[in-house]
Amino acid sequence: MILTFDKLLDTIKEYLTDEEDLNLITKAYRFAYEKHFGVKRLTGEDYIDHPLNVANILTTIKADAATICAALLHDVMEDCDVTKEEMIEHFGKEITYLVDGVTKINKLNFSGDNEAMLANHRKIIVGLTEDVRVIFLKLADRLHNMRTLGFKSEFKQKEN
After folding, report:
1. Catalytic: which of 21, 45, 46, 78?
2. Would you call 78 a catalytic residue per the annotation?
3. Range 68-103 burial, b when 16+ CB lie within 10 A, else e
């Protein structure tokens, strides 16, 4: 089944009913769609399908509107040259904080087997995430990426 924004919104409406929240989620989707327009994933799907699926994963835990917005926007600062200031202007500090937290985690290098290094990374992640929603966002992002690993080479699959 291909996930569309309308299907995602129907799922969200099962537990979020505030019109302002729903309008903000729609605004976030449109912004992300515009920024990712024309970009394809290795699966051949439009890139926007990834943030849609990340947001959909988060509906299973009934994530709040800010978290859903951040899921839809989670790659725009890193991949689309959207500035932190632009994000704050369009979506406020809370959503920007969540997106920025995921972006900072994405920049960490987790390669290697050294126990001390792994423990240090755990401390960094905890320090970066005063808000547990950042961890939920990153886990949903990784889950969707894992679900689409079949389109990568065996080397890239092991690397991810």
Report:
1. 78
2. yes
3. bbbbbbbbbbeebebeeeebeebbeebbbbbbbbbb
Categorize the per-residue pLDDT at 127 as very low, low, confident or very high, splitting at 50, 70 and 90.
low
pLDDT of residue 123 exceeding 80, the answer is: no
Alpha helices in the chain (DSSP H): 5-13, 19-36, 49-59, 65-73, 76-79, 84-106, 115-128, 132-147, 154-159
Task: Give the model confidence (pLDDT) of 69-107 as tens digits.
Answer: 999 999 999 999 899 999 999 999 999 999 998 887 766
For helices 84-106 and 65-73, give the axis angle rounded to 10 degrees. 80
Reported pTM: 0.84
- Looking at 21, 79, 94, 131, which residue is catalytic? 79
Residue 79 appears among annotated catalytic residues? yes
User: Helix or strand or coil: residue 104?
Assistant: helix
CB atoms under 10 Å from CB of 10, counted, come to 10
Residue with the larger pLDDT of the pair 99 and 132: 99
Encoding tokens for residue 48? 């926007």
105 alpha-carbon distance from chain centroid: 11
- Phi, psi values for residue 69, rounded to 5°: -60, -45
